[in-house]
Amino acid sequence: MHLYKSQTLKIYNSLSGEKETFKPIHEGNVGMYVCGPTVYSNVHLGNVRTFMSFDVIFRYFLHLEYKVRYVRNITDVGHIVDDVDEGEDKIAKKARLEQLEPMEVVQRYTVDFHDILNAFNFLPPSIEPTATGHIIEQIEIIKTIIDKGIGYEANGSVYFDVVKFNETNHYGRLSGRNIEDMLANTRDLDGQSDKRNPQDFALWKKAEPQHIMRWPSPWSDGFPGWHLECTAMSTKYLGNHFDIHGGGMDLKFPHHECEIAQNEACTGQTPVNYWMHANMLTLNGKKMAKSTGNNILPREILTGDNSILSKAFSASVARFFMLQAHYRSILDFSDDAIVAAEKGYKRLMEALESLKELDSSSNSTLDIASWKQSCYDAMNDDFNTPILIAQLFEGVRFINLLKEGKETLTATDLKTFSTAIQAFAFDVLGLKDEKLLDISNDKLEGTVNMLIEMRKQARDNKNFALSDQIRDQLIALGIQLKDGKEGTTFTI
Predict the structure, then answer these.
(1) What residues pair up with 30 in beta bridges, in sequence order?
(2) Angle at 194 between CA 193 and CA 196, to 5 degrees
(3) Binding residue ranges for ATP
């Protein structure tokens, strides 16, 4: 029997404002879409926290033995500065300022995004589509919306008619808004806009002559609206109706609200069963902002190259720190907080390392089954990682009692306990034992250097067959040797 059948998972649904029992559309399968980064700058720490929340959610579904299709997009066109419909594309602006091709900007910051997430031990999504790779799909959706009478063309641009849509649907349901209040609190259009109503949003924008990023369409050479791309990519890979859509709290309005409207206009049905939103990260009690200097990049935490923290911290320590707060809670990042998290992380890793030293007994004095279920109960309660961490430290207490001989476990219970606590720490929370990694890297370097010396001796003895065999087998393992005047070095 699959593990998910024995666990009842509840998810806080932003659409209903309540925790709801998770029931997938197709039993044993989960379809999850998460709004990815706009790749015009280095990924910031708030982004990392949001994506980490969904990485843990992804990991827990996999742990429960669901088959998961996790789609996380890359926005590489259409995201206008200040999240509005008029103005300059964020990527195009960056390209103009740095005198680069837009796709050079996209490539640079996509690589940075992947490097940072790899450092923080994220699992890759099942699919990572790009907005520019789905222009055709976006154009087809626009055609459908126009045919339904909810989209209109004006001077080469196409807009979504929110007022028309709201006659039969509820625009604002996700964010708790209603159209009457929005219209009442908006100034009348001054005649310079092509929109019929202030709340209408762009599906397609006609490109100005100086705009670099443009594609042909039935309406103009232009580019798609930011909201449209997620509708196109989510429905292409997950269908018109899927389980979970996630993102940062800041995307709830207007981005996710517009996504719902586009989907409902096209298909006549609600696209997503569970909307999930991760909360923001503050720094020293204030909002993170590059403009004020109250900002730190993930890479600066790892290198210590910053003026905010007292030293460098490993990615696993930073990950452990972030998971000590629930994903829907605001989390404040500070030097004191991450120093305290490092102490807790090391205590947990030391306890897990000592598991192999524990001996079994003829009877058990600890209720491992109840403890294990309490770990599941924490994650089943809307992925409550701080409660899970508290249960892991209850497990640390067990380990210490077992080491002191004050409690005992049978061989079966000891194996169950050891497997469970490591699964929750490493597989579900995604932590790594940095000490073991350091030892592993040292051993790897020592082993490769020994083989390099053996290869040198083989070459000195003119045993070129052995020399070539050592080199070729290292290459097969992903280790490249480089011979130079000062000796042989290697790269992985």
Answers:
(1) 68
(2) 100
(3) 290
Query: Which residues are part of a known binding site?
Result: 35, 230, 255, 259, 290
Q: Which residues are annotated as a binding site for Zn(2+)?
A: 35, 230, 255, 259
pTM, rounded to two decimals: 0.87
56 within 8 A of 430, measured Cβ to Cβ? yes
Q: Alpha-carbon Rg of the chain, whole angstroms? A: 27
Question: Residue 478: left if φ>0, alpha if ψ -120 to 50, beta else—which one?
Answer: left
Q: Reply yes or no on whether the pLDDT at 305 is more than 80.
A: yes
pLDDT digits (tens, 9 = 90+) for 369-383: 999 999 999 999 999
- For the chain, give the number of residues: 492
Nearest-CA neighbor of 47 among 333, 281, 235? 281
Q: Which residues 6+ apart lie within 8 Å of 371 measured at CB?
A: 391, 394, 395, 398, 417
Closest CA to 61 of 133, 143, 110, 123: 123
- Label each residue of the chain as H, E or C: CCHHHHCCCEEEECCCCEEEECCCCCCCEEEEEECCCECCCCCCHHHHHHHHHHHHHHHHHHHCCCEEEEEECEECCCCEHHHCCCCCEHHHHHHHHHCCCHHHHHHHHHHHHHHHHHHCCCCCCCECCECHHHHHHHHHHHHHHHHCCCEEEECCEEEECHHHHHCCCCCCCCCCCCHHHHHHCCCCCCCCCCCCCCCCEEEEEECCCCCCCCECCCCCCEEECHHHHHHHHHHHHHCCCEEEEEEEHHHHHHHHHHHHHHHHHHHCCCCEEEEEEECCEEECCEECEHHHCECCCHHHHHHCCCCCCCCCCCHHHHHHHHHCCCCCCCEEECHHHHHHHHHHHHHHHHHHHHHHHCCCCCCCCCCHHHHHHHHHHHHHECCCHHHHHHHHHHHHHHHHHHHCCCCCCCHHHHHHHHHHHHHHHHHHCCCCCHHHHHHHHHHHHHHHHHHHHHHHHHHHCCCHHHHHHHHHHHHHCCCEEEEECCEEEEEC
Among 168, 224, 232, 165, which Cα is nearest to 200's?
Answer: 165
pLDDT, tens digit, 9 for 90 and up, residues 338-348: 999 999 999 99
Contacts of the segment 349-357: beta carbons below 8 A, 24+ positions apart:
349/431, 349/433, 349/434, 349/435, 351/395, 351/396, 351/399, 351/400, 352/421, 352/422, 352/425, 352/433, 353/433, 353/435, 353/436, 354/399, 354/403, 355/399, 355/418, 355/421, 355/422, 357/403
- What would the pLDDT profile of 159-177 be if each residue is shown by its tens digit? 999 999 999 999 999 999 9
